[in-house]
Amino acid sequence: MDAQFLDLLAQKYDTEEKVVTEIINLEAISNLPKGTEHFVSDLHGEFQAFQHVLRNGSGTVKEKIKDLFREVWTDNEINDFAALVYYPEEKIQLVKGDLCNKQALNRWYRQTIEQMLKLISYASSKYTRSKLRKALPEQFVYIVEELLYKTDPTNNKDPYYEEIYRQIISLGQADKLIIGLAYTTQRLVVDHLHVVGDIYDRGPDPDKIMDTLINYHSVDIQWGNHDVLWIGAYAGSQVCLANIIRICARYDNLDIIEDVYGINLRPLLNLAEKYYDDNPAFRPKLQAGHNVSAQEILQITKIHQAIAMIQFKLEIPIIKRRPYFHMSERLLLERIDYDNNEIRIGGKTYPLENTCFRTVNPQQPEQLLEEEQQVMEKLLFSVQHSEKLARHMNFLMKKGSLYLKYNGNLLIHGCIPLDEEGNMEAMQIEDKTYSGRQLLDVFEYYLRYAFAHPEETDDLATDMVWYIWTGECSSLFGKREMTTFERYFILDKETHRERKNPYYHLRENEEICRKILMEFDMNPDHGHIINGHTPVKEIRGENPVKANGKMVVIDGGFSKAYQSTTGIAGYTLLYNSFGMQLVAHKKFNSKEDVLCNGTDVLSVKRLVDKELERKLVRETNVGEKLLQKISNLKNLLEYRYMK
Ligand SMILES: O=P(O)(O)OC[C@H]1O[C@](O)(COP(=O)(O)O)[C@@H](O)[C@@H]1O
Ligand SMILES: [Mn+2]
């Protein structure tokens, strides 16, 4: 081993005892059971449902409460306590309203703190004391540790412990402590969170999801196609930007652009008012319970058309300057017969409905009006100068990647592009051809390059980000074409169909999944592929666990807009030391419902895989690093101290 490296290490571990202590510590940790991984995907701005799943650890919190108190509590008592762990601030207020006097409240405090401590002690049983300490409410660490680790068989210290409880209550600290302990429990039941893509679009609060993730103790993200669209906009792609605004208009979510990220939509509105009118194909899909006036609906409808037309125009030059994108079929504005209001697609002529082509020059359909150009420049400027968006996008880049190998599993939002025979599908980019893992690595390279160079807006890297959103070989889109134009302007539904990459039927086949795992240098006997992106239609009998358990698809429809097709409200996956379990969630109504009626309709769990032996930290990604460190320290011990 490099003597220089060992000398450096010796600066930190400058006595034999320090080296030995650390080795013992790391060896011990690597023999603990592995922590619980929690997988979610396709959150699509549904912050309320997402935070509920985080707070209840996909049912893990309630399971632990049941393990401890099943014999002595009724179902109602279990639900009440669970609600307290999920939403402590609100539940305490409700309890206070219910209890008639101070004495009763104090009794409740005393009892609740003790029960919370029991739960924490149980939930942290596979962690080190030091890890638990980091999860405890900071201001109460000392007293909580006193109460947690009381080991006095003689009961000599009973009055001491009693006094601690009494003081907490009489000094008015009980609320704060209970709240802190509730959050500790939430944190302990999940060691690490994976977000398998699509945080953004359709739902109202992607920004709140981002803030939650930023504050989460341990998380990684696999970008979804919608996340990439936002990254693209921030990285300087006007066409990605037009898309995100179009989707926000379509789902009545322009507040996200305007109020949350502070991007001024006034110039776009002025343009929209000038050139567009009401149009049934562009009316927004309204959120349930969202009150929107007729005038606002009209405004959004106009903006929706204005930005959609800009998007269609902006696509043309990119398709032309990148022939290897193979998207000439999508030069639709050039194929319109503007006199007869019809279009030829796939050898057939279709009438166009609900058209809004006033700003299109039939001779040069890609040409933006000067006003359109100015609007896009201003929008891009504000997007790139939104401080909050910068924070969120930087976090997406820091914690995100196109795919992730983690503890033997391959996590990817969309797909690995395949041909019908199950071979890795190849894509030519400039004068080189890539496929499989290499292709994904190239996509990620361009995406990171585009992000690092926001001032370059028409270069290959920026165009490539848009390709990842919509191109036929994209690992995130996974379809042959995106039929946005047809969905707005052609009635015949046959034209709306988006043909999926063969991956989506081949992934049912175990051999194919094994082949993909091997492509990524992973062990096909132990690994799984974890996918999001395509809603599993449970309602029609589709099974989210495919290919003899090698493939798990966890998009179950957090997105309200998709719940009627899936029949459930989202899947999550748990992977603890005993194995993998898929959880199907029932529709999340509201926090109030959980608080008042205890309706935390417990999700149905299905076993995906059971470990033959309990999995230990040493067999995980983190464990690998620990073992490396142990080996370095052992070398140091020999080199420096064992003469
Ligand atoms: O249902 P909407 O909002 O019109 O969106 C449909 C579009 O969304 C996509 O399904 C992509 O979004 P997803 O990643 O959520 O599937 C496109 O393929 C399709 O054209
Ligand atoms: Mn997706």
How widely separated are the two ends?
A: 16 Å
Average per-residue pLDDT, rounded, comes to: 94
% residues in beta strands: 5-15%
Globally, the shape reads globular
Number of helices: 27
Rg for CA atoms? 28 Å
| Unreliable stretches covering 5 or more consecutive residues | none
Structural class: alpha/beta
Strand order of the largest sheet: 7-3-2-1-15-16-17
Outline the biggest β-sheet. 7 strands, mixed
Bound compounds, each kind once, are:
1,6-di-O-phosphono-beta-D-fructofuranose, manganese (II) ion
State the helicity in percent bands.
Answer: 40-55%
Strand tally, please? 17
How would you characterize the overall build of this protein?
By secondary structure, the protein is of the alpha/beta class. It is 50% helix and 10% strand. The strands form four sheets. A seven-stranded mixed beta sheet has the order 7-3-2-1-15-16-17. A five-stranded mixed beta sheet has the order 8-9-12-14-13. Strand 8 and strand 9 form a beta hairpin. Helix 1 (3-12) packs across helix 27, helix 2 (16-30) packs antiparallel against helix 27 and helix 20 (436-452) crosses helix 21. The protein is globular and about 95 Å long. The protein binds 1,6-di-O-phosphono-beta-D-fructofuranose and manganese (II) ion. Residues 198, 225-226, 479, 482, 484, 498, 533 line the site of 1,6-di-O-phosphono-beta-D-fructofuranose (FBP). One of its GO terms (molecular function) is fructose 1,6-bisphosphate 1-phosphatase activity.
